[in-house]
Write a structure and sequence with these properties.
The chain is mainly alpha-helical and about 230 residues long. The protein has 10 helices and 2 strands, in the order ββαααααααααα. A two-stranded antiparallel ribbon has the order 1-2.
């Protein structure tokens, strides 16, 4: 995976994935909404957000602020990191904004991982997805309430119809039906089922609306704030 990172300020930066323009990756992502592609990037960067801020604070508060005195990089896999740091010292004066003091404040996950302020509010794709999800939640909640009231009304009507039909059946018909194995006070099971079918359909609509609300709330969460707990990711 390749990344291009640019420092925007002492406490913020921008990241892009240049490989997204390659034909293979573009084809793999073709069916994904743009906001979901952006959210995949957020998921990857969350693991570094809190860690890198704490690392920077520890370095700036150390007695010696030379990275060579604070970091031990003995492995072959560390060679690229060390070479990059040496290049920044030779070509960029140490690092972007190296001379700008960084306030030592308590690490707040909600501030460090605030996807809304860091990305969504500035992205037309993600802000549109957020607004659409919030609107859908409101409409789905209204629809769920309406379907619930309709379900209660339909259940009352069905109960009255079943009771009336059972009361109207004769004792002889009820005895015959009992011998045939029926329910509902002498009514055939299929009759009871047909009376309850509208109730079941409306109840299914309520469940569908609630599932839609849950899905949209998850989308809103993904576009605003998702806490990162390392133990839960591994």
């Amino acid at each position: 995976m390749e990344w291009q990172a640019v420092d925007d300020s002492p406490e913020a930066g921008s990241c892009t994935d240049p490989t997204c323009v390659r034909p293979v990756k573009r084809a793999a992502r073709r069916n994904l909404p743009e906001w979901r592609r952006h959210n995949m990037t957020n998921t990857i960067l969350d693991g570094d957000g809190v860690f890198l801020r704490g690392q920077d604070q520890n370095l700036r508060s150390a007695a010696s602020q030379r990275w060579q005195d604070n970091y031990y990089l003995p492995g072959q896999c560390d060679r690229l990191v060390a070479a990059a740091r040496r290049w920044m010292e030779d070509k960029a004066g140490g690092a972007p904004f190296a001379d700008v003091p960084l306030p030592i404040v308590a690490l707040d996950h909600r501030a460090l991982l605030d996807r809304y302020k860091q990305h969504t509010v500035n992205c037309r794709h993600c802000s549109a997805a957020l607004k659409e999800s919030q609107t859908t939640i409101e409409r789905a909640q209204i629809a769920a309430a309406a379907f619930f009231m309709a379900t209660c009304a339909a259940a009352g009507i069905a109960a009255s119809r079943i009771t009336a039909a059972a009361a109207a059946s004769s004792a002889a018909a009820a005895a015959t039906a009992a011998a045939a194995g029926v329910v509902g006070g002498g009514l055939p099971a299929w009759v009871v089922f047909m009376e309850l079918l509208p109730v079941l359909g409306l109840a299914g609509c309520v469940a569908a609306c609630l599932l839609l609300v849950r899905s949209c709330r998850s989308t809103v969460e993904q576009l605003t704030f998702v806490d990162y707990v390392h133990a839960d990711r591994n």
